[in-house]
Amino acid sequence: MLSLENIVFQGGMLGMEDPTAPVSLALLLAQAERHANDRLDEVLRATGLTVDQYRVLLQLTDGQGHSMAEVAEQAVLAPATLTRVVDRLTQLNLLHRRVDPVDRRRALLYMSHRGEPLIRQVINEEEAVKEELETRLGVVDFNHLLDTLTRMISAQEASSTAG
Hints:
Elements: H1 25-45, H2 51-59, E1 66-67, H3 68-75, H4 79-91, E2 95-99, E3 107-111, H5 115-137, H6 139-162
Antiparallel strand pairs: 1-3, 2-3
Helix pairs in contact: 1-5, 2-3, 5-6
């Protein structure tokens, strides 16, 4: 079975000049992520947030408490990295921890009132970046990209839970 882990990059480029050359899905996704994060970094620099901090705060916009494990998974962060990010966001008064009323051994993360306007500002700026990409790709291709990425993630999650 083909997975992101066993896709091998062959050759020096992604086959942009040679359409018959093998293409590495993992490399394409990594390059796309890098470009997206570069644009996001520009937006975040003005707020003083990092991409990892933004990813964490983004998980908390619903006002519900979320466990560290849940946030780590959704923000695509290693647990140790998440701990550092949460500690820093707590120092900045952008989020706070509360004891889980159901399981007092767990802490739930909540965005603070100070974090809400900051995250709204970044979300609005990110929407502008998405609109630029939509303009460059066209509405149909942009929506197809979002749908394909969503289905790819869902398929991977389904195979992870099944196996």
